[in-house]
Structure formats: C-alpha cells, structure tokens
TrEMBL record:
The lineage of its organism: Bacteria, Bacillati, Bacillota, Clostridia, Lachnospirales. GO terms for molecular function: DNA-binding transcription factor activity; sequence-specific DNA binding. This is AraC-like DNA-binding protein. The keyword DNA-binding applies. PANTHER family: ARAC-FAMILY TRANSCRIPTIONAL REGULATOR (PTHR43280), HTH-TYPE TRANSCRIPTIONAL ACTIVATOR RHAS (PTHR43280:SF28).
Amino acid sequence: MADNRFHYNNEDDPYFISYKKTYGTNMNAHHYHNSYEVYYLKTGERNLFIKDRVIELKTGDFLIIKPNILHMTRNGKLPEYERIILNYRDDFIDKDKKYQQDLSNLFQQDYMVIHLPLQDRILIEDILNHMILEVDSQLHGYETQIKSLILHLLVTISRSAENNNIKEMNHINSTHEKISDVVKYINQHYYQVITLERLSNCFFISPYYLSRTFKEVTGLNIIEYLNTIRIKEAKRLLRETNYKISLIAEKVGFGSLSNFGRVFKEGTGHSPRYYRTNKNS
C-alpha cells in the first residue's frame, strides 16, 4: 500500500501542516507540544490515547487539542487511514479578543472531538486542501491566506459544535475505564513513590494483569508513562521557575539527581541544564 505524505514546517515553527494516507502505523511515543493541534480523520479509524483515556476516532471526526496535552494515536479496527493535522501557536493567530470570544466554545476543555456531518466535512476538506495548496505554492501573501483559512476552519468547527455534534467521551470498555482510573492516579501523584505493587493494591488488580493491560491500553509500560509525566512537569519547571535542578528533580519524584538527569536526557535528548538554557523560549 502506498504511503502518501505531505509535511510543511516542523512543530517548532508557528504552524505545521501534515497530510498522511497510509496503512497501519502507531506513533512511537506519547507526545505533547506548545501549539494547538487540529486533527481531521478523513477516512479510517484510529485509537487516540489522550490525557487519561482512549478514544475511538472514526471517519469524519475532528479533534482539537490544547497545548501541552499528552496524546498518541494507534491503529483502530481498520488499519488503513487518511488524516490531516494542523498545528498552530497562539502567536501565529493574532490574540484578538473578538476571535477568542467567537471561538471560546472550542477551548473550554483540554480536548474536544466533534463528529462532522457530511456537509461540514466537505467544507472542512476544501479549507484544508486549500491550506496545503497555499504552503505548496508559497505565492505572495500565502501566510496571510493561511491565517484566514485557519480562522475559517475554526469558525466552521465552532458552529458545528454549537449544533450538538460534540462526541461523548465514553470509555471503550470496562478495562479501559479501569486503566483510565490508574492513569488519573499517576497524573495526580507522579511526585510520590509509585510502584506496580502500590498501584495493584490501590486498584485491587493483580500486578501481572495491571502491567500487561496498562501497556495494551496506553502503549507504554507503567514506568515509561510515569517518567513521561515527570519529565513533562520538569520541563515546565525548568522553563517557568528559577528552582535549582536538584529541587526540580525532587519535586517531580526522582530520588536522585543522577537518575533524573539520565531519564530527562533519554526523553528529550538534552540535559536539564541545556534544556533550561536553550529551550526556555
């Protein structure tokens, strides 16, 4: 099966557009970014792990994610899929109060899934295809055109949301619901000593079953997920505070500075000190 892809810019730029039509791929890791993400599933099915649960995405679903929300997509029941992703930062769209008021219903939650009726899907696909043509041709004024297209896109989605097209965030099954509770617990207590045995006792699940099921549902084992949450918070503290690195390591749950440094570098590719100096922007 052909793997058709289109990318423009990267996730460090003010906006990023990606189109992909492919067969059966899982993201390599959970990720988050400092931009809004707009994800449109044109065809197929995907399972989305986001924040503390798994959501089934189907053809015609439109997902909006606020900045710094952990998420990952994985194969659904149908492995072939086609999707378009748009990421944009606040500073790319003027921070006009009128815009914020008109679009406020889209950003009251950390994420929202809207199932678009056919008429809206046709319009949305036209807007997204127009964006791709603009960035591909890069004619005079193309970035101004992209800004206007993003606003057109968001207003269209906002109107669709007002028509009660927002999907309920139901758990896929009782197992997913139980693992969601475990994830919420880790999200709230990441700075404490968390072990498989502790979680097993808290949720009355055998260690073996919990370990296996957690990996199946989230795509990570418990330690990998815990470290992801800890590093996410450590990055925030490195950007937003002047705390000593040793104090940050302690605040996010690491028992030693050396272990913190090792895990941080594995997760980011840089030492905490380098990140603070070079990524604090």
